[in-house]
Each structure stands twice: as structure tokens, then as C-alpha cells.
From TrEMBL:
Keyword Iron: yes
Sequence similarity: Belongs to the complex I 24 kDa subunit family.
Keyword Cytoplasm: no
Pfam family, one: 2Fe-2S_thioredx
Species name: Sporichthya brevicatena
Cofactor needs: [2Fe-2S] cluster
Protein name: Formate dehydrogenase subunit gamma
């Protein structure tokens, strides 16, 4: 993976975020979440900046970013659809719902539709087990989601 230096104003903001959390114990995860919250994703070019600020290797920072599913290295869509893949939801049709969503959107997990409208993600529990299959659309929890109901929700997003 190759990195380019981020534009100075953005690099300065990333350094400021890192400085604001540097005194915390094990600040890397907190800083990564804060940078992603501000910019929407973790552009790979921020990795060397954070490595330098935290006196870590680029490989260490990249390893953390690539390990955790919650970190995105590409811009998300305008909306995010997360489908629960935990056992309780699988038992009531989540696998079929996943296949329906992938076909309907034309993308896989971690991908965004060509029009930039929807990013499809998987999650392994939304805490809504009694009302599965469950999804989350832009942070709003939905239970007992059928393919038809999913289509209606997706129609509202586009």
C-alpha cells in the first residue's frame, strides 16, 4: 500500500485530534474513531500521520485499521445498511435477507452502491434478537425485516 501526504489543513486537523487524545491510555483506537467521525472514513494517507504522532510504525496503525470492521478506508454511502448475521437472526431468515440485499443493491459487504447511496455492512449482533432478522439503517434499528420490507426501506434511501 502506498501513502501520499494529506493536504496540510487536513493533516493539521488529524494532528490536533491525536494531540487531544494523546494522554489517554492506549489512545490509538480513540483517535481512529475520532478521525473517522470527523471525516467519515480513514483515508489510508492519515496512517503515516498518526503513526508519526503516536510514535508507532505505519504497519502497527495499518494493522489496527485493517483488523477492526468498524473502520472504513473508503467513503461510506449517504446511508448505511447493516444486517445482523448473529445466530438468532440467522435462525429466522437473515441469510436469505443478506442475499436479497446483495442482489438488490449489487454490492457485497463493505461496499457502496455505484450511485453512492447505500453502503452495505454486516454486524454480528444488534441486540434485537427477539425481533429478527434485524437491520440498522443509518443507526435506526428495524426488526422482523422481510425482503419486501427491506425493499421498501431501500426505496426510501434512494
Amino acid at each position: 500500500m502506498t501513502f501520499r501526504a494529506p493536504a496540510p489543513p487536513r493533516a493539521d486537523r488529524i494532528r490536533a485530534i491525536a494531540a487531544a487524545h494523546a494522554a489517554e491510555r492506549g489512545p490509538l483506537l480513540v483517535i481512529l474513531h475520532a478521525v473517522q467521525a470527523e471525516f467519515g472514513f480513514l483515508d489510508p494517507d492519515v496512517i503515516p500521520v498518526l503513526a508519526d504522532e503516536l510514535n508507532l510504525s505505519v504497519a502497527e496503525v495499518h494493522g489496527v485499521v485493517s483488523f477492526y470492521r468498524d473502520f472504513r478506508t473508503t467513503p461510506p454511502g449517504r446511508s448505511t445498511l447493516r444486517i445482523c448475521r448473529a445466530e438468532a437472526c440467522q435462525a429466522v431468515g437473515a441469510d436469505a435477507l443478506v442475499e436479497h440485499a446483495k442482489q438488490r443493491l449489487g454490492v457485497g459487504f463493505g461496499e457502496t452502491t455505484a450511485d453512492g447511496a447505500v453502503t452495505l455492512d454486516e454486524v454480528f449482533c444488534l441486540g434485537n434478537c427477539a425481533l429478527g432478522p434485524s437491520i440498522q439503517v443509518d443507526g435506526k434499528l428495524q426488526g422482523r425485516v422481510s425482503p419486501d420490507r427491506l425493499d421498501a426501506l431501500l426505496g426510501d434511501l434512494r
